[in-house]
Amino acid sequence: MNNINEIEILLIEDNQDDLDMTLRALRNSNFANRVEVARDGVEALEFIFCEGRHAGRKRENKLKVILLDLKLPKMDGFEVLKRLKSNPETRAIPVVVLTSSREQRDVVETYQLGVNSYIVKPVNFEGFAAAVRDLGMYWLLLNQPPETAAQR
Amino acid sequence: MQAEQQLKATLKEISDLKAALDEHAIVAITDSQGKITYVNDKFCAISKYSRHELLGQDHRIINSGHHSKSFIRELWTTIAGGKVWKGEIKNKAKDGTFYWVDTTIVPFLNEDGKPRQYVAIRADITSRKLAEEALRLSESRFRSTLDNMLEGCQIIGFNWRYTYVNAVAARQSRRSKSDLVGLTIMEAYPGIESAPVFTAIRRCMIDRISQELENELRYDDGGSAWFQLVIQPVPEGIFILSMDITERKRAGERVHQLNLELEQRVRDRTAELEAVNKELEAFSYSVSHDLRAPLRAVNGFAGIVLEDYGRHLPVEGRRYLERIQAGGRRMGELIDDLLALSRLSRQSMNRETVDIGGLVREVIAELNAQTDGRKVQFKVRNLPPCNADTGLIRQVWVNLITNAVKYTRHRNPARIQIGCSRDNGRNVYFVADNGAGFDMQYASKLFGVFQRLHRADEFEGTGVGLAIAQRIIHRHGGHIWAEAAVDRGATFRFTLEEPQFHNP
What we know:
The structure holds 2 protein chains of 2 kinds.
Chain A: E1 9-12, H1 16-28, E2 35-38, H2 41-48, E3 65-68, H3 77-86, E4 95-99, H4 104-112, E5 117-120, H5 125-142, H6 147-151
Helix pairs in contact in A: 1-5, 2-3
Chain B: H1 2-24, E1 26-31, E2 36-39, H2 41-47, H3 51-54, H4 69-80, E3 85-92, E4 98-109, E5 115-124, H5 126-147, E6 152-157, E7 162-165, H6 167-173, H7 177-180, H8 185-188, H9 196-207, E8 211-218, E9 224-234, E10 237-244, H10 246-309, H11 315-346, E11 351-354, H12 356-368, E12 376-380, E13 386-389, H13 390-407, E14 414-423, E15 426-433, H14 465-475, E16 479-484, E17 490-495
Parallel strand pairs in B: 12-14
Antiparallel strand pairs in B: 1-2, 1-5, 3-4, 4-5, 6-7, 6-10, 8-9, 9-10, 11-13, 14-15, 15-17, 16-17
């Protein structure tokens, strides 16, 4: 893949269709070369904390946003979110939940866990592509992260 | 001389004794044939006969007819045999009144040992006998009252023995009167000393305090009956009144049992409902997540093909891909509406006073922005506030007014009237339009989920809006109905209250 330390977006998604569409939308907005994909919660945490498969990775990554699906194998999105937001090292990394569900309890629970944004994947193609493009724009280009997060 | 002296003295003593006897007792002497030869003053006084009416008569003159022939015969047999007779005799005086005398008849025997005469000494016991008779009479009257009572009556003496048991009490205890009378209650009911009923009986017997309790009596055959007992102190001991309350008791137990069963059934049903609700929730959660994902793939990849390879496709191929996307979009809408509907029944209600006028004006302002520049005339009349869940009731107004806007699409100008009327003491809100209307013969389908009265190419929609409105109104305890005619508009009316009175 690309230079591992240039990664700015971690996309945590197990559904191949959604993954392909998301990557395509990011590619069309020229964000694709900064994306790392994790297919489940365990893999995502290994990447973030440089463990397991990613043990050799240097910690000083420049992650600007984590796109998190809620329904994931092994460890679900709620658990990943809880680990990230309860750890001082990762608390400042913006996490955007990107999910199918508009169930109120999911929204409430993720906000309680400290999610930065909650986006329902639109069913229609144009809406989906636009949503991915917009959030890439916002988090990568417009959002000004706190100093500590930027230095990591 | 000395003998004469002695005789004189003896006679004097006899005469004194006789005088003393006459003073105390009723005395009569009869000969061996029974003829009266002597009566003293007391005899005359009590029999009200003069002496000369009595002398020479026999005792039949004062016969009351009370005593049996055998009684009289036994008397004569005794005294004729030279033996003393003692007894109580009822006699009749000259004026027809009766008197009782305690009588001792002493035969005086001659040298042959045969009775020469009989001396009868009597004492007046009339008042005692009358008292006894009165007592017997009243007692028998009281006994017959108890005997005829519908409640069981028992009298237990201070020695704990049954002295009286009426027929009902005997029947209640399933024994005969004669079996019980004479027994102590401990003999009649072995082990009764440890029963609560005995505590009550003892309190009454010893402390002389009335007791009342319900007692279950167990029979030898394993059956039992319930009695209400009233235990009262009486001069003879205690009196127990017992009423059979088995029926009442059994009915009470049955009611109790039914209540328990009912509670259990309610618990079971509640648990079932909760399980169904959970299942429903899990279902809609899963629909929410899992049904959308493949739909997104259908739409998404159709869109990608159009975007990336559309220029290589013939027009028809592109149109088909657009049809795929349209189908997917519609399915997405259906899923969203279905989820909204199912969320509705799980959502909790929070009733408060809602300013309907303000709420409707807000909804109209929002919808006006979506009428695509059409000319829609809203006429909002007086709308009283109501008691409802603000969020839910807002949804009702949004759905009704959205419908009115939608189905007046081909009218220029479109007219929508919103107001409230009074009917049977309740507020009936309405939304009336001059739009497409519908055929009243399909009115029953109006509020069904996914039921539509118009083709999708005439008026778009999923057929869930009115179902949601109806569900919300039902949850508020109200009703919704509609009147319409094809091409002549439709009026939807709803109320959130029960009618307060009925027209005859």
